[in-house]
Amino acid sequence: MQSGDNIPIEERKPEEVLSIAGIPVAPHDATVWNPAFDVVPHDYIHAFITDRGIINPPFAPAIQTMIYNAQ
């Protein structure tokens, strides 16, 4: 994939950042764009930090090893 321009970005509910535990933390007229994730150029990815550890390059074999060890 040459570009992430066509990857649809899920939008989360604005309330997730406009309030905490139901208590407003932003002005009532504030607008929010709350993407669930961002598309990052691969040159900027140096590691994946997971609940099972850090995955370093080369990623494909490191991911396979982590999956194998999780079984």
Give the topology.
Blueprint: H1 15-18, E1 19-20, E2 23-24, E3 48-50, E4 53-55, H2 59-70
Antiparallel strand pairs: 1-2, 3-4
Q: What features would you describe in this structure?
A:
The protein is α+β, with helices and mostly antiparallel strands. It folds into two domains: 1-39, no CATH class; 40-71, no CATH class. 23% of the residues lie in helices and 14% in strands. The chain has a two-stranded antiparallel sheet with strand order 1-2. The chain has a two-stranded antiparallel sheet with strand order 3-4. The chain starts with 14 loop residues before the first helix and ends with a helix.
Characteristics:
23% helix, alpha+beta, two-stranded antiparallel ribbon, 2 domains, two-stranded antiparallel sheet, 71 residues, elongated, 4 strands
Stretches where pLDDT is under 50 for at least 5 consecutive residues are none
Distance between the termini: 30 Å
As a percent range, the share of strand residues is 5-15%
Strand order of the largest sheet: 1-2
State mean pLDDT (0 to 100 scale). 93
Largest sheet: 2 strands, antiparallel
Helix content: 10-25%
Shape label: elongated
Total helical elements: 2
The radius of gyration computed from the alpha-carbon positions, rounded to a whole number of angstroms, is: 18 Å
Helix-strand string:
HEEEEH
What is the number of beta strands?
Answer: 4
When the domains are counted, the total is 2
Structural class: alpha+beta
In short:
This protein is an alpha+beta fold and about 70 residues long. It has helices at about 15-20, 60-70; strands at about 20, 25, 50, 55. About 25% of the residues lie in helices and about 15% in strands.
